[in-house]
Every structure is written in structure tokens, then in C-alpha cells.
Amino acid sequence: MQDQPKIPQATAKRLPLYYRFLKNLHASGKQRVSSAELSEAVKVDSATIRRDFSYFGALGKKGYGYNVHYLITFFRKTLDQDELTKVALIGVGNLGTAFLHYNFLKNNNTKIEMAFDVSNEKVGSEIGDVPVYHMDELERFLEVEDIQVAILTVPAPVAQSITDRLVSSDIKGILNFTPARLNVPSHIRVHHIDLAVELQTLVYFLKHYGAAEEIQ
Ligand code: ATP
């Protein structure tokens, strides 16, 4: 934000951590939080947290703590200002097509810049303003556009071989929507979202525990 003093880099690095935790707190209806609670949750010592938060103009009150809503509003604005993270989507099937239309832009500083597929019907088209390229072009385009994150919505049997190509292309993170469990080196982060399993789990818990109990 223009009217905010510059935040030290070390503090800026901790923002996403704070933000994620505060969003969860907010979602669970909590309106305030102490630096001790935050410290415990995000594993940053409370003196550092107090100093970090003083840069945001958030001065915790003794016996009250910090206003969760204020902090979240601040983080949202500040983080949105960050550089856009460029994303590639691989596999323009039903799910992939839906993501291209959705494109995550509304609330996040991420954007799907390009998509890849092997199907002649899809390659060369644009879906939701996102161009679809052939897989043969993968490495070249990822490098040229400095893509950092890939979303995988391909059939499971091809997921690992595509992942290996992504790893060689210096991708930093993969959001895996295929049921395949991916092997990657430790410097690559993979988040696995198996929608079928999530749905089955929900149904299972509804049957056996009902709605009230929290599922960990
Ligand atoms: P979804 O699972 O997303 O609902 P779908 O049922 O429409 O998709 P799938 O067979 O799962 O289709 O394939 C998803 C997409 O992945 C298709 O567009 C397909 O052309 C593409 N695809 C298949 N093999 C590869 C590959 N090796 N590389 C890239 N894309 C591929």
C-alpha cells in the first residue's frame, strides 16, 4: 500500500503464515488473538510477532490482544500487492476447463497464464482467455514465462511422467488433482487434492459422526 511504511523482508516472509492462521481463526468466529496464542500456532516467538505487527500499525492491547478482522484486512491488501504468481494448468479436461474459467483471480495473487494438453481439439484454443499449448512446448513456455506453479488435471497414469518434466523445468509447486501420489525431490512442494476422496470422506463422516463433530 502506498501509505504503508516499507516492511522488512524478514517480516514480509512471515505474512502468509500469519495470514493463513488468522483466516482460520476468523472462519471459526474468533475476533481477537493474543501474541502468545499466535506464537504457539505459527511457531514464531511472541516478541518477533509484536515487532512484526507494529509495522502494520496493529498495536495489541494488554489483556485484549489483536483484532483479527483488522489484521486480516491488512494482510489481504498487502499480500495482494505482491507479485503475481504465474501458474500453468496441465490437462484441459472437464476439471481443467472449469479451472481455466474460474482462474483464481478473484481472491488471490495467482493467475493461470497458460494451459497444456495433447488433444488436437484443445491445442490452439483459448479457454477463459488462457491459451492452450501442446505438451511438446511445455519446457519452452514454462521457462519463457517464468511459471512457478503447475496445476495437474491429467489422467492419473500420466501424472508422474509429467511431474518429472515439471521438476526438470524448475517448477516450485504442484497442485495435484489426480489420484496419483507423486514423487518429487524435497525442494518441490506438492499439494494433493483428491476430490473423490474428499467427497467420500465427507459422506463417511456424515454417516458415522453427523455434522457436529470436528474432523481433524
Ligand atoms: P477430468 O478428469 O478433468 O474430468 P476428462 O474426463 O474430461 O477430465 P481425462 O481423460 O481425465 O478427461 O483427461 C483430462 C485431460 O488431460 C484431457 O483434456 C486430455 O486430453 C489431457 N491429457 C491426457 N493425457 C495427457 C498428457 N500426457 N499430457 C497432457 N494432457 C493430457
How would you describe what is shown here?
44% of the residues lie in helices and 17% in strands. It has 216 residues and is an alpha/beta fold. It has a seven-stranded mixed β-sheet with strand order 5-6-4-3-7-8-9. Strands 1-2 form a two-stranded antiparallel ribbon. The two termini are 37 Å apart. The mean pLDDT is 87. Residues 90-96, 116-119, 122, 135, 153-155, 158, 162 line the site of adenosine-5'-triphosphate.
Distance between the amino and carboxyl termini: 37 Å
Number of strands: 9
Order of helices and strands: HEHHEHEHEEEHEHEEH
Q: Using only CA atoms, what is the Rg?
A: 21 Å
Strand content: 15-25%
The tally of helices reads 8
The chain-level mean pLDDT equals 87
Shape: globular
Classify the helix fraction into a percent range.
Answer: 40-55%
Query: pLDDT below 50 for ≥5 consecutive residues: which ranges?
Result: none
Order of strands side by side in the largest beta sheet? 5-6-4-3-7-8-9
Could you tell me which ligands this complex binds, including any ions or cofactors?
adenosine-5'-triphosphate
Look at the helices and sheets and give the structural class: alpha/beta
Largest sheet: 7 strands, mixed
